[in-house]
């Protein structure tokens, strides 16, 4: 059953050259514990859609429901991992996570427990009192992931979270994400431009065209764990690339 149901959603912006319709009458679902990835050309509206789901932006039409109820960001714990981790530079790593937990209404003792547990879980147990600028890009991104997961999200939104990392660090981060995802069973809506990443991570991939319309959905036909170098994975990547360029070029 779908947990997240985006139905008939339209979003317009007032652009410099008049109104801009980013997407219109868009439908998308994410089932319980499913990992769904959204791919599409730059500017087609992927971040805008995540922001609508998160309640940061109001849609002009349509509904976003979770478990059959309209999404209320004050009620539904949604973890959001951005391309850049957006850490508060003047607060320690632990305080950055504490800030999110406080906002989610978690009490002090439980906050302390979760900060400890999640920093350990992402391999940063020693860094609780460090400041973000003392960490590498990969470590900062892991703080962002710990912060998103610490609130025990029902839904995890991820916007190109590994695109600023070098490939070796990104592979480690993707493995960590898959481990955490399988442990927590969270439903994930993920955005990437990286075809290989999409195939290795996702249960299902939705392709958007430059007009913000979903024109294809690919169910990834492989069990887990998956290896980047597996020839079958390469075949699916090639198919995804073909589907994408046939439509978008
Ligand atoms: N607040 C805003 N006001 C006006 N236009 C906006 C606003 N936010 C986004 N847009 C426009 O909406 C369109 C979709 O932007 P969005 O960032 O969602 O695309 P995207 O698919 O995430 O792109 P990318 O892959 O480059 O991150 C773009 O044309 C963008 O310029």
Describe this structure in words.
This protein has helices at 46-54, 93-103, 108-121, 137-150, 167-184, 195-201, 231-248; strands at residues 2-15, 18-31, 35-39, 61-66, 69-70, 78-81, 155-159, 187-191, 204-208, 214-219. Helix 2 packs across helix 3 (108-121) and helix 3 packs across helix 4. It is built from 7 helices and 10 strands. 35% of the residues are buried. The chain is an alpha/beta fold and 249 residues long. The protein has a domain at 88-152. The structure holds adenosine-5'-triphosphate. Pfam families: ABC_tran. One of its GO terms (molecular function) is ATP hydrolysis activity. This is ABC transporter ATP-binding protein. Residues 4-236 form the ABC transporter domain.
Q: Could you give the topology of this structure?
A:
Layout lengths: L1 E14 L2 E14 L3 E5 L6 H9 L6 E6 L2 E2 L7 E4 L11 H11 L4 H14 L15 H14 L4 E5 L7 H18 L2 E5 L3 H7 L2 E5 L5 E6 L11 H18 L1
Parallel strand pairs: 3-8, 3-9, 6-7, 7-8
Antiparallel strand pairs: 1-2, 1-4, 4-5, 9-10
Adenosine-5'-triphosphate binds next to β1, β2 and α1.
């Amino acid at each position: 059953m779908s947990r997240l149901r985006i139905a008939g959603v339209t979003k317009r912006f007032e652009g410099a050259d008049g109104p801009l319709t980013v997407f219109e009458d868009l439908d998308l679902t994410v089932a319980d514990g499913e990992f769904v990835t959204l791919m599409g050309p730059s500017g087609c509206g992927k971040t805008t859609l995540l922001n609508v789901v998160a309640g940061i932006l109001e849609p002009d039409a349509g509904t976003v429901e979770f478990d059959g109820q309209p999404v209320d960001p004050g009620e539904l714990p949604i973890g959001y991992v951005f391309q850049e981790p957006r850490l508060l530079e003047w607060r320690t790593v632990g305080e950055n996570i504490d800030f999110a937990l406080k906002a989610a209404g978690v009490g002090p003792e439980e906050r302390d427990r979760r900060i400890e547990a999640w920093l350990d879980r992402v391999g940063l147990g020693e860094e609780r009192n460090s400041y973000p600028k003392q960490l590498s890009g990969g470590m900062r991104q892991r703080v962002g992931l710990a912060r998103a997961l610490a609130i025990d999200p029902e839904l995890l939104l991820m916007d190109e979270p590994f695109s600023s990392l070098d490939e070796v660090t990104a592979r480690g981060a993707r493995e960590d994400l898959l481990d955490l995802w399988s442990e927590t069973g969270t439903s994930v809506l993920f955005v990437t431009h990286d075809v290989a990443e999409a195939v290795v991570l996702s249960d299902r991939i939705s392709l958007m065209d430059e007009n913000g319309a979903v024109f294809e959905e690919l169910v990834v036909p492989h069990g887990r764990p998956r290896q980047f170098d597996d020839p079958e994975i390469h075949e699916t990547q090639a198919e995804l690339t073909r589907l994408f360029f046939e439509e978008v070029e």
